[in-house]
Fold this protein.
Amino acid sequence: MAAIKSRTPSGSDPSGPGPGPSSSGPPGGVPTRRWAALVVIAVAQLMIALDATIVNIALPTAQHALGFGDTDRQWVITAYTLSFAGLLLLGGRIADLVGRRRSFLAGLAGFAVASMIAGAAPGFGVLVVGRALQGAFAALLAPTALSLLAVTFTEPKERAKAFGVYGAVASSGAAVGLLLGGGLTQYADWRWCLFVNVAIAAAASVAGRIVLPAPPSFPGARVDWISAVLVTGGLAAVVYGAGQAAPHGWDAWQTTAPLATGALALALFAARQARHDAPLLPLRILADRGRAGAYLAVATAVVGAFGIFLTLTYYLQVVAHFSPMRTGLAFLPLAVANSASGYLVGALLTRRVPARLLIGGGLLIAAAGLAVLTRLDANSGYAASVVPVEILLGIGMGAVFPPAFSLATAGVSPREAGVAAAVVNAASQMGGSIGTAVVNTVAIGATAGFLREHGPSASRVDALVHGYTTAATASALALTAMAVLVTLLIRAGHRWEHEGLHDGLDPRSALRGGSGRR
């Protein structure tokens, strides 16, 4: 395909020298720096993804070092996910307004500073503030990274490979976080689970200033701050309410009050978007059936991932008595299977197989892995009972994320690419946050029910395992149901030769400012 001219468009991002690498090069020509840009974007996404779990294994050590109680420890995790999920749409809009390259670099710098604050925390309060700041800058960085990828790779074959790499990194980052967290906690110090981000962000920032493109910004657009408050507060309230279900139950006022408040705020947000002349989230982005299916698939796949992280982490450490490092290493088959599947799907299959078969099939494979987990008992061996679960879940998630991420951002004008990317990241965070809360609540309830049913003679270990397997059953059913729904939502005839553009938009023409109708 013909190369896009490298002249700087009106209103382009002035944060770097020139417009950066073009999104494609001429056939047979010298490759541009877009593949180096992909490495920078993937590294940033890996940092964001692994930070959702890297602190999990370090949490008992951090709790002992800082002296906070069991009721407070959830906030070390929740502070990150709350600010991340709640600020994503605002982060995506800011990226569209001030320029994605500038926003990306600012997000890296802010994430590094927040990691330093959290890592050096003298007490619980500073640790939570640092984690919340990490989530806030991740909310700026994540949609910026995905939208940069979407506008950098527009040629179908290269786009498929790029999203394969990105999807593999995004879906395996949580497992990598568990592995890295275990190693740093056992052989260095729990604070290095946070300090490590400073080195990653610094390296990505230096490289990003050299290789990242500078697509146009749209400074004439406006931010509807009322909508920003409604969606941020609404998402945060929903995530907070879901997190309260584990300690208090779903029918407690501590759970229902924030859930109802969040639902009301989100309803008001949706009504405002339908009437506002410059909406924070144009509802037409959600109107496309394929894009809606992609959002739902990402959210549900993350439920399965975080469900297994929760249940297997506790099973391996509490029941099987694995050390933190050994627990981290135990998730290595999941990370390897996920990365291999993600790249295979992205590089070879997304342009040959209908998207709905890849996404729906991936969800079913992941559900099969969770179904295997339901056979776990207190005496199950790691190799025979845990490894098959991880491999199936890794393959399944690897098949879901590359086509879902590509479909979620395809066919969107450059002006709205940041918002579209923010929505898919918000779906991931909401799925992980709510999924973890639901899975944890199911496991706790099943464990309590087992103890009541079997009386004083009941084995505590057997009760815990029963809770884990019950939670795995619920997760498997959720993934199976979503596989059917996604298959129905995404068009049967859609193939990736058309780059997921249901509305007929050609992104190459859109980048040049044309309508792109074919």
